[in-house]
Amino acid sequence: MTFDPPSSPCRLAWHLAALLAMAGGALVATGAVAETVTIGSMSFEIPDASSGWKSQTLKDGFILQKDFPKTEENRRKGAAMIQVIGPFANLPGSFDKGFDTVVGLIQGMAAEDITTKSNGTTINGHRIRQEYRCCGRLNELSAGQRVVGVASQGKQAYFALLDIQLRGDAQDSAEADFGALVRSLKLEGSDRAFELVPREGDGGLDGVYTHLDTGVRPNAFGGIDFYSDSELAVFDPSGLYATELPADGDLAEHCRREPRTCGLYALKGGGFLSRQNEIEMRAVDDDFGTLAAETKPLQQAGGDLMIGEASYTPVPPLPEGTSFEGQWRFFFASSGMTASSSGGVSSERILQLGRDGSFRRTGSTGAMSSQEVGGSRVGFASSGERPVESGRYRVKDYTLELVGDDGSTERLSIFAPEKDSDDLLVIDGSNYLKQK
What are the alphabetically sorted keywords of the record (predicted)? Predict the structure, then answer.
């Protein structure tokens, strides 16, 4: 190794013991938390004091800890710890060895399965690597560990999130705070925090395009699902693109809120008298700002695009004041079985729109599961109805605004992929078929 991990075994053990106490014991008070932390030449943003994270600056690092109360979803109290390690000199061959050392700081975690991983570059051109391991046991409590490493030409730093007894919204919250911290990293003095900013030479397309992707894929229940997805590509002339429509029409703001649905692109190739015949797409691959670049063949003909082997057709915006008449239905179902279990889920949403600008929305969900345990089969089934909602709607460009009778307002993205037809409406990414 080229560095001595700053959290020595005894120091890390102390914090780990405190974390386990948070997961199984009393609520831990939160002290004041600064918004920006600077360690040497490195700086990053941390959650504010109201978020519940308790911080401690160490001589050779930084720790954040937070407890999560028991909820209906989390049957036991949970806790999370974020550890910042570095910066260190980035000596040749040291980055991956350092990464493996950080993974091994929590005893037993290195032996757990890697469930997600990525490897790429940051917006500052630094190498970034991340892995998530689940699910270990610490003092009989379930635990997961995510490690992220970032290396510039001269420096490297590591970030680790340990989650204990976290599920659902609690785990999502801890992951979101950890992701925001890593994205804000400035490892070098010239670095900028994560933001998708096109560079010179990026861009060249303009508009919203859709591609129908169909096929089959395995599901979580051991079965096979057929899928039919209307994939989107929203291109801004500057070089910014997204795979989702911004509900408010502001692509740049959408990409700040939802970076995983965005990226940067540039047109390549071609000759003096011919169009570019390649497109480089630098997609945001994870919540930590990893950019994964891919170059595909590009053809432009009659307004359509052929990107790789996928054909994209332009989708015009809906004129302001557009109205619809009828009822549209979204339905999803997934089921399957193995030698010892079976299960399934379903979801239905009904949207009724009137020429007078009125809407009515209903829906339902269902789930079932059975499993053989000790020679007996046990299972459960549940279902629910979504409360009826009604009110007024407005359409402009790619936005559907629903104003409820209770005064609530919701903005959803909307487009009609079939020219001069409303048989299919794609609303907030879901296919709604018109009922005849």
Answer: Signal
